Amino acid sequence: MRDLRLLALLLPLAACRSARTTDAEPPARATAMQPAMAQPVAMQPAVALGPTAPATTVGPAATARRSSWSPGFVGRWSGDVLPDARVLAADGRVVALSTLLARPTIMALVPPNALDAEPATLFAKLDGLRRRYGPSGVDVVALANWIGKEDFLAAASARGAGWPTPVYSDPQDPSPKDQHDAYERIKHHERSFLGQLSGGGMTPALPACIVVDGERRLAGSLHLFAGDEDALHEGAATLLERAGARLAAEVAPKSKTPAEAWAKPAPRPFEAPVAPLQVGQPAPELELVDADGATRKLSDLRGKVVVLDFWATWCGPCRAALPHLEELAKRHAGEGVVVLAACTNDERDAFEEFVEEQSFRFPSLLFAHDAPGRSPQRASRRLYGVDGIPHAFIVDRSGMVVDEVVGHAPGEVLVDAALAKAGVAIEAATLERAAEQRARRARPAAPGRPRD
């Protein structure tokens, strides 16, 4: 029986199961297999801080430097052997991944827009790693995802001299945008490079970066944008040594990593289900902590219509929904509509990192963190009964919950339409689209097939 979290990712509902998880690590910085983003996005790699990461304090006074690496990556752990997937070379050849990994390799997994970006910040970073570690027998390559074969080959041809580091692509074309059959989407996803890498489950936000040895064994994942070159190189060197690289003294890690840092943690315990908050009830008081360490209370927004969106940095559908929520908040700001983006079931440092690096893209959203993090005492679970994200509650001006929307799929306007129940004027065409989308969600699946 397929994992419910996978079905939640692939159905139009596209909700991440946030409470009933047994993963050893959170599905770090995961995203839907085809991001719902029409413009270039610099999403950060799938890095859950490893056991060696220092503790991070709350607020701007935090001084501990975040770790730039992790021994885990989308459900895999250091020492796991990666599948020998097929990749497409820039000259049109399809080759096995194993042919690229003859020695320790830094592999960046990049979105399509990275191939045309000028100036190529990502490739400049990769070229710097190549120059630093190449003399020690290390390869650096990039692999493009979510791009069609013809588009990739055209991009490679247009580059002429090529990219600063070798670039390959997933030979499988992206899933058609109009493919509503969940069973077909699952099969298509499982055949893709990222699908094979993640075992058919949730895939990382891109760009992501991994370090692999010459036998396709994962050393760990590397955060290319750790915010500090020293931290980046210490992480890269640590993982490359783990992958068997014989680094020159001047580029070797400065500190020894203890053996326990590589030990896979025990699975998180199963969380019992909780009663969901019912529409028509008063919204429970909620206290969150913003990126500056200040307390944000739901009651402080009384008199406004609040879209209380529970999300997490590791949840792909959550992150894919943010551009739409930004557009919604901007469009209805004059009518007293506020989107409170409550990061829940997530670590404080991951939230702070996201706000630091990504919040400029969403100036209309109020970002704050559910302080208990991944604890069962998090407010989203304890007060609102949330066990899947994204999960948005629409709270009217008097503080009553008038509607809720679970999950997000590209093009959905369910949250927009829900604002009408709080007295916000919504166009008839939007209400009609939402009605069609709700009907599609509710349509029963054919026998033996998941609901699409």
What topology emerges from the helices and strands here?
Layout: H1 4-10, E1 16-17, E2 30-31, E3 69-70, E4 72-73, E5 76-77, E6 86-89, E7 94-96, E8 105-110, H2 121-133, E9 139-144, H3 149-159, E10 167-169, H4 182-191, H5 193-197, E11 203-204, E12 208-212, E13 218-222, H6 229-242, E14 287-289, E15 295-297, E16 305-311, H7 316-331, E17 337-343, H8 348-358, E18 365-369, H9 379-382, E19 388-389, E20 391-395, E21 401-406, H10 414-418, H11 428-442
Parallel strand pairs: 8-9, 9-10, 16-17, 17-18
Antiparallel strand pairs: 1-19, 2-11, 3-13, 4-5, 6-7, 6-10, 8-12, 12-13, 14-15, 16-20, 20-21
Q: Can you count the beta strands?
A: 21
Radius of gyration: 22 Å
Query: Which secondary-structure class do the elements indicate?
Result: alpha+beta
Instruction: Give the strand order of the largest sheet, numbering strands 1, 2, ... along the chain.
Output: 3-13-12-8-9-10-6-7
In round numbers, the mean pLDDT is: 82
Strand content: 15-25%
Termini separation comes to 17 Å
As residue ranges, the low-confidence spans are: 1-14, 18-65, 446-452
Largest sheet: 8 strands, mixed
The outline comes out as globular
Which percent bin holds the helix content?
Answer: 10-25%
Q: How many helices does DSSP assign?
A: 11
